[in-house]
Specification:
- The protein is mainly α.
- It has 2 helices and no strands.
- Helix content is 43%, strand content 0%.
- It is elongated.
């Protein structure tokens, strides 16, 4: 009866960085100015906050009590 061959330890793996994400598109010139103004305007900030609240409500339903 033969002895089983000793098992070699697995080579260490590099930690996964997750899914590859595309680089964000860099805006330049007038497009960049318009985008910055949109983000910092009161209407733009309010729209972003409402979108964030909707995302939180979807991810964590019932987190906030409805009045």
């Amino acid at each position: 009866m033969k002895k089983p061959a000793p098992k070699m330890p697995a080579a260490p793996r590099k930690p996964s960085t997750g899914a590859k994400k595309p680089m964000p598109r860099t805006l330049t010139g007038p497009d960049a100015i318009k985008e910055i103004q949109r983000r910092t305007s009161p209407a733009g900030v309010k729209k972003a906050e409402s979108g964030a609240k909707k995302g939180i409500d979807k991810k964590y339903p019932g987190l906030y009590k409805k009045k």
